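--- STAGE predict ---
source: upstream dedup step, 1 unique chain passed
mode: sequence only
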Amino acid sequence: MNCTFLYPPQFVKAPGLPRGQGAAQHLGLAYLSSWLKKHGHTTTVINAFNLGLQTVQLSPYKGQNLHTIGLTTDEIVSRIPHTTELLGVGIPFSNAFPIVCSVVRRIKERMPHLTVVAGGIHASLFPEQCLQEGIDYVISGEGESPMLQLAEGKEPSTIPGLSYVRDTELVHNSPEQGIHNLDEIPFPDYTSQDLNLFFSHPPRGGEAHASMSLVTSRGCPYSCHFCSIHPIYGKKWRARSPENVLDEIDHWRRHFGVRHFEFEDDNLTLERERAATIFEGILSWGEEITWAALNGVRVDTLDRELLSLMRRSGCVQVNLAIESGSETVLSLMNKRLSLSKVEEVAAYCGELGIKAAGFLLIGYPGETERTFRETVQFFKKLRKRGLHAVIPLIVNAYPGTQVHAQCCEKGWLAPDTDEHIFCENDEFVSIITPHADASTVCTWKREAELLINGRMRYFKALLRDLLG
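--- STAGE serialize ---
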């Protein structure tokens, strides 16, 4: 079957790429393409965001003066091969959903025979919403197996992870369990994309250099109440073999000259021996390769020996999933993290020269003025011990998480929560509790940035935001 995969344009607040953002490598669609090719199907990937990085359109939406970056709707439709029989659309974030709806409507006008399938985080969490907009099927969770079965013409009712409408009735099939042996999935397929765009616009912005993103594992065995990974990847942790990971890194360094890699895993170091084998393999090449783990690493999986190996193998930055400096709040989150261990790891990172930043979640249900002050003091201590920076983030109650269920039950969700997800807004407060209203949470966030990261760093960031 001829399949086309589409990564949509994105809403942004200002007329240009947000600071710290570059081209989208979208590993999900690249993996789907390679998986279907392995099984004899023909694929094309249209990365409408990357192809229109210089195309910025004013796109007012529900009272917000937003802009769209990416190809226009007509340009997208014109790039879909006429031979396409199955179109997969990735909706990685909710802010792309209105754009996807517009594109799907135009596709259905021009190519009514085409079957449209949606996947990704938003689709997995809001399948009914997607189906109401003319999308034929929604895949919740990992997409390789369900997409292949659709391409093979399997009966929809037999495909796990699929949602669809049958005789006006909404149908949700049993959950998709995901592929157990991740080594069976070929490396991401970028043959129909322009790699020079990736290299000239690194995923997280910054100076142009050849950089590639990698995912070496899926799933998470922990049960943090705020985390949205489980609706997508489940609780069972599955990992690629060290040999498979090293083969991919070797592929990019030998054939494309890539010297910097970003691990996008949620649990890169969960299995210590496996992680060490990967880092030792990189080190054995004797080349100047650098890498970063920016998605958040569990602190309790790290020690001085492993961190030393990480540094020697080229680790330049790691983000630590700390979340809070209050034992009370960590307990409410079900985080299960020792603060003394956090101090120890922060000191090791500083000693070894690894730029370590700590995630700090602000406004979690149960957070009070007292617990916030405890957290500020703790992170200030971490900064003195060796933590390079702190990343304060306002907690979001993502659908499918336990904190979302708790907030629904208690009536703590802000009334306009569903609207804020359509554009980036790092000061929107979706959780309002008796202990902290929206104004309080925003004040805490600004104080955390100022008190923990320092006055000069705070005002430099503020100036960058004002100047765009």
